[in-house]
Write a structure and sequence with these properties.
With 160 residues, the chain is α/β, with parallel strands linked by helices. The protein has 4 helices and 7 strands; from the N terminus they run βββαβαβαββα.
Length: 160
């Protein structure tokens, strides 16, 4: 799927978690693969040294009621800083809980994020507003139209 989407797969990094993720498998996962690559016709730029490892050790967040698979901000900030400069745009087509958006804000990048589930869109927007301390300038796009956060919140209150 990665290649079919027009990306060159450079490698697979491993997010090593501090504890097991319990499931039904005989072996319990304590890691998550992270694909690393870039658009086949794009430039690959690298902004750090040559001694970076494919094993990434970041503690996973404690259980969170906002999203079942919330990623730690530091996990996302690490490759973002290695692969982009300040004031550039980062695309996250799987917004989830908004950790990429938070990482971009903390590392002086802009982030365009997409999330199909409205429940998690709300999580992302509220998390961002809490981070920056204001809803001023926050735009939510639904069905191709731009709305201010206040308009969305007002509509949700009306729909109840």
């Amino acid at each position: 799927a990665f290649s079919e989407a027009g990306f060159y797969l450079s490698g697979t990094c491993i997010w090593k978690k501090q504890s097991l993720v319990l499931g039904r498998s005989p072996y319990q996962w304590q890691h998550e693969p992270v694909l690393f690559g870039w658009k086949k016709k794009g430039k690959h730029l690298w902004y750090t040294g040559r001694k970076e490892s494919t094993i990434w050790e970041f503690d996973k967040p404690k259980k969170n009621g906002d999203h079942p698979t919330m990623k730690p901000v530091a996990l996302l900030a690490y490759p973002i800083m290695n692969s982009s400069m300040s004031n550039t745009l980062v695309l996250d087509p799987f917004g989830g809980s908004g950790s990429t958006l938070v990482a971009c804000e903390q590392t002086e990048r802009s982030c365009a994020t997409i999330e199909l589930d409205e429940k998690y869109c709300d999580v992302i927007v509220k998390r961002y507003i809490e981070l920056v301390g204001s809803s001023t300038g926050v735009i939510v796009q639904r069905d191709g139209l731009d709305y201010t956060y206040e308009e969305v919140a007002s509509q949700e209150a009306t729909d109840g």
